[in-house]
Please model this.
Amino acid sequence: MKEIDITRGIIENHVADLMQSLKSDVVIVGAGPSGLVAGGYLAELGVNVTILEKKLSPGGGIWGGGMGYKYVITQDEAKGVLDDFDIPSKPFEDNLHAVDAIGLASGLIFGAVRKGAKIFNLVVVEDLLVREGKVRGVVINNTFAMMNHFPVDPITMEARAVVDATGHEHDIVRTFSSKNDVALNTPGGKPIGERSMFAEPAEDAVVTNTTEVYPGLYVCGMSTAAVYGGYRMGPIFGGMLLSGKKLAHMLAEVCGK
Ligand code: 48H
Model:
């Protein structure tokens, strides 16, 4: 066993994955629950999908459960998604299920990978490629370079559709809207901003507002609340899972699958 072979094995495989992702059908920014579900279903439907995550660990806001208590809650309507990703849950009250947050995060990550989504961690999406009024890809950089404010220029990936699954931050839509003179598909043409907690309408709105916000640019999960002025819902995750599933079916159709 030679160290140099271990090194070659890592570099060759990483670069092969990266080359496949240079031109994806769909790039999802953010590996939280909505992005992972969307990516998993899209891959299963035969779409070439890449998920980019700036942190070391995918999973987004799942890991901490509610205030560090390691369970989250889902509704009956989302049970099918848990089943599709082989994630156990315990029935709780009428129509609710308690899900171990660590089981949910790890199950969605592994489920997305097993279904064929390519996930790259430690990659920040810092901007978009826009041509002729349509989003055509992402501008990416290395997390460590960004954290240290090193003057390292970014590189790019092309995609037919880009998804902002960056959660509360709605980083992609926010940056796109502030850098360009564009009208988003929102009342007023700009992100509206998230509202205070009101779980039931918040959960419905996350799914309703999973949509194309600008040609080629889609939102799912918590970023829909920030973009469309939805309420927050606290540690109930059914809306995130159902938003990811809705998005996958919308984009599979866009990609002709
Ligand atoms: C690469 C990025 C970038 C970037 C951010 O926050 P998330 O878990 O997102 P959702 O929408 O799938 O789930 C939301 C849920 O976790 C939550 O916060 C809920 C239900 N809150 C309710 C409430 O009331 O508070 O994941 C987003 C991911 C994170 O992992 C970020 O690191 C990542 O996106 N990300 N990755 N490039 N520019 N910006």
User: Anything to note?
Assistant: The longest helix spans residues 3-21. The radius of gyration is 18 Å. The pocket of 48H is lined by residues 29-35, 52-55, 60-62, 124-125, 165-169, 171, 197, 221-223, 232-234, 237, 240 (CB under 6 Å). The chain has a mean pLDDT of 98.
